[in-house]
Amino acid sequence: MTEKVKVIIRNDQKDVKVPPGIRMLVRRCCHAALVLEEFDGSAEISVSFVNDEQIHALNKQYRNKDASTDVLSFPLGENGVYDINPDTGAKLLGDIVISMQHTVAQAEEYGHTLQREIAYLTVHSMLHLLGYDHEDGGIQKMRMREKEEAVLTRLGLPRNGSYYPVDE
After folding, report:
1. CB 48, CB 10: distance < 8 Å
2. Terminus-to-terminus CA distance in the chain, angstroms?
3. Which of 8, 50, 97, 138 could form a disulfide with 72 if both were Cys (CB 3.0 to 4.6 A apart)?
4. Closest to 116 (Cα-Cα) out of 164, 72, 160
């Protein structure tokens, strides 16, 4: 059973104002993903809001991809085994890095709110921290998408129909 969830949130960018309520939304997303996955014990997650330049540098450094992206996940565990915070006993799941500029653009492109986009990226990254992968596509990608939608629907943020850009 999921016990205590500590989400450390930092805003390391000044390009996009982080709307009120976003920190609580991110915490709710992290908790809901852990509940859905029946995560056992306490957990600690770090979430950072950055700009496109910062995420580009991280993507290049850690993934050898010379481009910005919307979100990066840095899992600390493997196969359900995590480092433990010696002070709290919480499992250290890893870091989520979200580009606020990318997020604003994607929310507009997909025709939904900034809150919905941040929630989606947070849940998506939480699943990565919990060991899910979609790089090979197929069943793994489909399973991840189903879990993402289950969490977002539970939080009252269901998909608005499609992930394709809205025609203008």
Report:
1. yes
2. 46
3. 97
4. 160
* Per-residue buried b or exposed e for 110-122, using 16+ beta carbons within 10 Å of the residue's own CB: bebebebbbbbbb
At 97, list the tokens: 């890095």
Neighbours of 1 (CB within 10 A): 8
Which fold is adopted by the domain 2-154? Answer: Collagenase (Catalytic Domain) (3.40.390)
Q: Render 97-136 in DSSP notation, one character per residue.
A: EEEHHHHHHHHHHHTS-HHHHHHHHHHHHHHHHTT---TT
Q: Structural domain boundaries of the chain?
A: 2-154
The pTM score is 0.90
Q: Which residue has the tokens 């009252």?
A: 156
In tens, the pLDDT along 42-96 reads: 999 999 999 999 999 999 999 999 999 999 999 998 888 899 999 999 999 999 9
Residues 6+ away with beta carbon under 8 Å from 115: 19, 21, 22, 25, 157
Q: Which residue has the tokens 């604003």?
A: 104
Strands 91-99 and 71-75: antiparallel
